[in-house]
Amino acid sequence: MCCYEVGGVLCRVFGMTILLAASGAHVTERSFKQVEHADLEELYSNALQNVSVHSLATCSTLCSQNVDCKSYAWTNYSSQCSLLSEDVRRTSFYPLIPPDIAVYTTFYSDCSEFEYEAMTGMSGLCYKAYTDYQSYSETQSICQNDGGNLVRIPTLTKHAAILQVMNLKSSKEIYIDGTNIPYGSWRLSDGSPMFLNWRSGEPTGGGGENCVIMFDDGTYNDVFCTALIPFICERQLNV
Ligand SMILES: [Ca+2]
Hints:
The chain contains five helices and 14 strands. By secondary structure, the protein is α+β, with helices and mostly antiparallel strands. The protein has two domains: 10-107, Hepatocyte Growth Factor; 112-236, Mannose-Binding Protein A, subunit A (Mannose-Binding Protein A, Chain A), CATH 3.10.100.10. Strands 3-7-5-6-4 form a five-stranded antiparallel sheet. The structure holds calcium ion. Residues 202-205, 209, 221-223 line the site of calcium ion.
């Protein structure tokens, strides 16, 4: 099994021998925070390495030294350290992880660490304005792949914040999260109420225009979800 040594450097990991960075050479400023829930199956399917090390601190250091490591899981009783390629907190749901396993994920201090920008007036929320034209479903996929979602507008306050971003980025129109399927009324994709500010004469869609775009004057239009429109993703700084 593994024989991790401080400053030394050879560690046998499940039959593979890896060379660890020399002491201090590649340690970054990354920090981690513990999360409470994670899907174990997903967690381990994303493991880069499973290592036996002598301490939680060592596990944290190994993750910091590996550019592909986004989070890690530590099992105290067996001293098992799993380095994970995904930020498990963002992609995970129940069930609860067992109490003997602790999961830590990257703690971000600034949106720029994942190439987003801070959204003015919305504490802890980051955004990224995409200028390419995509269908509604594709925008959702791209945003989720970023660890976020297409901008959600449940309130006038959020509406104003998004409008400010649009003006800042000279966006003429964007997709916003929400449809009138399957609810029969306009809802955000999580089913919660959606702030609406229809342009005069809208919505026109009847049964066909089931998605919503927002114009740079703050008004909305229902459109076919296959329409190709620029979009803005949002993501929490930390979750
Ligand atoms: Ca329309």
